[in-house]
Design a protein that fits this description.
DNA damage; mainly alpha; DNA repair; Arc Repressor Mutant, subunit A; two-stranded parallel ribbon; single chain
Length: 99
């Protein structure tokens, strides 16, 4: 059986370039309300090059944290065509990936 973190990473692999999801949506897809545990899984992602944890943001559109720094997360998201202003995604619903 996979760990909670591994289950989070499996879900993340479904998110295509140019889309984002939220900590809450990942938790709900795993039938839990452990939103902070999802954030902790992202923070401890051992494969940031292959598991796109930069595509997980806060429900209010703010980019949230990132293991390599918020500036790097914003850079990665912008490179995928996501518009961000003041650390917040503009039109989050247009980029949102739901499981």
């Amino acid at each position: 059986m996979k760990t909670f973190n591994e289950q989070c990473y499996d879900l993340l692999m479904q998110i295509t370039k140019g889309k984002v999801t939220t900590y809450k949506l990942i938790a709900e897809a795993l039938n839990t309300k452990a939103y902070r545990a999802v954030g902790n899984a992202m923070k401890n992602n051992p494969n940031v090059l292959t598991v796109p944890c930069h595509r997980v943001v806060n429900s209010n559109g703010y980019v949230g944290g990132y293991v390599n720094g918020i500036e790097k997360k914003i850079e990665l998201l912008k490179n995928e065509g996501i518009y961000i202003s003041d650390n917040k995604i503009i039109n989050l619903s247009g980029y949102l990936f739901r499981f």
